[in-house]
Design goal:
The chain is mostly helical and 236 residues long. It has a single domain (41-234), classed as Phosphatidic acid phosphatase type 2/haloperoxidase (Vanadium-containing Chloroperoxidase, domain 1), CATH 1.20.144. It has helices at residues 2-13, 28-31, 41-56, 59-67, 77-80, 90-114, 119-122, 142-157, 162-178, 184-203, 205-221, 230-234.
Length: 236
């Protein structure tokens, strides 16, 4: 309930301008809850969450998490099948390449605002599976933000597969904890940020033509009608 209220507030109060034609500027620092304060009970719970996942991660989970390090919408091939590739879907690839660049810019700004340290800097018991850049802060998770931004857009393109799309976004985000490079709160912040950013892109006229081209191409590749059935849209 708290998360839904935060999202509703974010979507209502954010009034973005256009950033050099790249997309709507959203002040995520003003919209997201702050990360847990150092030394707080919430911070201890956060690091314990990382350590609990680390203690039980399997070889299969590690391999999947490492594969999900890619900033690519084509990690959603689990949902759409083997034909979901940039070679077969050039309009989709171009649209989501633009999304990746937009997301990175928005997340970089809010990470710089919070300066929240990565788990490995908080506890020597954390053994990350990758080394992140020293100035790439932890909150919110950029991968999680991107995964949920992409999920919002994909779910509107193909509402028939909405549940599977968001389930894949959940896994993509969780893999950042498996990697040992993000806390659960980073992932939750990414969920909120990505939902807001995805919603803003849907409403931005400068993105509409590219979105429409990607949507038409993707639906055709899946053998779906150009327009979703009313039941699918109603279930979004």
């Amino acid at each position: 309930m708290k998360r839904c209220a935060l999202l509703a507030l974010a979507l209502l109060i954010a009034q973005p301008a256009l950033a050099d034609g790249n997309g709507p500027v959203v002040d995520l620092a003003a919209l997201l809850p702050p990360p847990p304060a150092a030394g707080s009970a919430a911070a201890r719970q956060d690091i314990n969450g990382v350590l609990a996942v680390q203690a039980h991660r399997t070889h299969a989970e590690i391999a999947a998490a490492q594969a999900d390090r890619l900033h690519s919408v084509f990690r959603f091939a689990d949902v759409f099948g083997a034909a979901f590739t940039p070679e077969q879907l050039p309009h989709t690839a171009a649209f989501f390449t633009r999304v990746v660049a937009y997301d990175k810019g928005e997340v970089k700004a809010v990470k710089a605002f919070w300066h929240h340290p990565r788990p490995v800097l908080v506890s020597h018991a954390v053994h990350p599976l990758s080394e992140e850049k020293p100035d790439d802060w932890s909150y919110p998770s950029g991968h999680s933000t991107l995964g949920y931004t992409e999920a919002v857009l994909l779910a509107n393109m193909v509402p028939e597969r909405r549940a599977a799309i968001f389930a894949r976004a959940d896994l993509y985000a969780h893999h950042r904890i498996v990697m040992g490079v993000h806390y659960p709160s980073d992932v939750e912040g990414g969920r909120l940020a990505g939902t807001v950013l995805g919603g803003r892109l849907l409403d931005d006229p400068s993105w509409q033509a590219d979105y429409d081209a990607a949507r038409a191409e993707l639906r055709k590749s899946l053998g779906l009608p150009a327009t979703p059935a009313a039941a699918a849209v109603a279930a979004r």
